[in-house]
Design brief:
Radius of gyration: 17 Å
CATH superfamily: Nucleic acid-binding proteins
Number of domains: 1
CATH topology: OB fold (Dihydrolipoamide Acetyltransferase, E2P)
Structural class: mainly beta
Oligomer: single chain
Strand content: over 45%
Length: 133
C-alpha cells in the first residue's frame, strides 16, 4: 500500500499516578505516565455500565517533559496528542514482550492541562520548542 498515512492519537483523561522521569545513558530525559479514559453508558436493561482503559504516554520532548514533570500529578485531567508506537523487548525469561505507547516527540506533540486551575493552559511543540500559558 502506498500513499499517505496518518498516525495520530488524541486522548482526554486523568493521570493514574505522578509522572515518572528517567534519563537514558545518553542523558536524554523521558517522562512517562498513564492516562485513564472512561466510557459510560446504559445497557439494554437501563443499568449503568462503565469501562476504563489505561493508556501509556511517553514524552521525548524536553519542553513538554519539563512541564509534565513540574505541573502534572495523579488525577490531573489532560489532553495528549501524539503518535502510537509499539516497542518489542525481552523480559528476564527471554520472552518477547510488546509495549504500546502514545509518544510525544519534539515538534510533534500536544499536551494540554484541563484542570480548572490550569484551564486554557496549553503546551505545544508543533511549531517549535514553545509553550503558551
Amino acid at each position: 500500500m502506498s500513499g499517505p498515512s496518518l498516525n495520530r492519537v488524541t486522548l482526554i483523561g486523568n493521570l493514574g499516578a505522578d509522572p515518572e522521569v528517567r534519563t537514558t545513558a545518553a542523558g536524554r530525559r523521558i517522562v512517562r505516565f498513564s492516562v485513564a479514559t472512561t466510557e459510560r453508558w446504559k445497557d439494554a436493561s437501563g443499568a449503568r455500565q462503565e469501562r476504563t482503559d489505561w493508556h501509556r504516554v511517553a514524552i521525548f520532548s524536553p519542553g513538554l517533559g519539563k512541564l509534565a514533570e513540574d505541573y502534572l500529578r495523579k488525577g490531573s485531567k489532560v489532553l495528549v496528542e501524539g503518535q502510537l508506537r509499539t516497542s518489542k523487548w525481552q523480559d528476564q525469561a527471554g520472552q518477547d514482550r510488546y509495549t504500546t505507547e502514545v509518544v510525544l516527540m519534539p515538534y510533534n506533540g500536544l499536551l494540554t492541562f484541563l484542570d480548572s486551575r490550569r484551564a486554557g493552559t496549553e503546551a505545544s511543540e508543533e511549531r517549535g520548542d514553545e509553550a503558551s500559558f
